[in-house]
Amino acid sequence: AKAAGKGCFRFFAPEMHEAARERQLMESDLRVALEKGQLRVVYQPQVDASSEEVTGFEALIRWDHPEHGPVSPAVFIPLAEEIRLIDEIGEWVLRTACAEAANWPPHISVAVNLSPIQFKSPALTSTVRMVLGDTGLPAKRLELEITEGVFLSNDDHVHDMIRALKDIGIKLALDDFGTGYSSLSYLQRVPFDKIKIDRSFVNGASDPESRNAALIRAMVGLASDLKMRTIAEGVETPEELQLVRDLGCPLVQGYIFGKPMPAEEALELAKKGAAT
Ligand code: C2E
Ligand code: CA
Ligand code: CA
Ligand code: CA
Fold first, then answer.
1. What is the pLDDT along the chain (276 residues), one digit of tens a residue?
2. Which domain of life is it from (predicted)?
């Protein structure tokens, strides 16, 4: 803090101004990126743990900034949420992914991430219905991934929307399971089809010292008792794959079977069927 005279203190931190300015630039760049088609969607295979057949793909957004290069969605999605650009970006991802998935063999599904902020828009369900109609993708081949964050606000409204989404016929997945606070009550109340076991449980789980194996086993058992399927995220090594298989987890996603890839490659893989 620097004395600015007359008993008034001005807090001056140049690096803070710099960060704020950068952010502002990124905000306007993100709007331009959406308008000018600088965003892309890549697809990561989801694989049956025993047969190693591809069952679906998760759609993940990418932004190649014309000057700064790739910007991580972990950085720009929160920004898009803050400036409320997420509804438009989310609809664009949904439309792109559904249009792409409509070209895949009919047993292959697509999973699209939804931000909790998108649940604040009453138009969400009609958007999903419209996109399915426009792209011709059957509802049962679309899976929407949500996180516990969805349930932090206005419970009844969120549950109504989830009901309405399920009524369309889409599938619902709980993302990043085990990383939040009170997942268990959501499992009881929300009709999830799938639970995604977070990467933090999977990585290093094959280490005999790790307690993660016990946690994964418990999550798989709980989900299966509730008639939900589990998918292990972030499986990278043969040891991790063997372990989640041994623990009874039916589905796997991770670098071991493929990094997120462009639509053309996903289509090839989908037609080929097996991930290995
Ligand atoms: P997420 O939904 O949990 O997505 C999984 C992330 O893990 C992806 O990162 C994926 O590339 C990465 N991943 C997959 N397999 C492996 C692996 O074996 N090892 C490691 N180390 N990482 C793996 P990505 O694409 O950078 O996305 C980060 C997060 O950004 C996503 O986490 C999601 O929360 C958000 N995101 C991405 N695309 C979208 C989108 O279209 N809409 C929304 N709302 N959020 C998105
Ligand atoms: Ca996800
Ligand atoms: Ca996840
Ligand atoms: Ca995550």
1. 444 444 444 555 666 677 888 888 888 999 999 999 999 999 999 999 999 999 999 999 999 999 889 999 999 999 999 999 999 999 999 999 999 999 999 999 999 999 999 999 999 999 999 999 999 999 999 999 999 889 887 778 999 999 999 999 999 999 999 887 766 778 888 999 999 999 999 998 778 778 899 999 999 999 999 999 999 999 999 999 999 999 999 999 999 999 999 999 999 999 998 777
2. Bacteria
Question: Is residue 161 a contact partner of residue 203, using CB atoms and an 8 Å limit?
Answer: no
Question: CA-CA distances (angstroms) from residue 74 to 50, 78, 80, 239?
Answer: 31, 7, 11, 28
Q: Which atom of ligand 1 is nearest to the CA of 260?
A: 11
Of 71, 75, 77, 146, the residue with max ligand 1 atoms within 8 A of its CB, to mutate for a pocket test, comes to 77
Strand partners, 64: 70
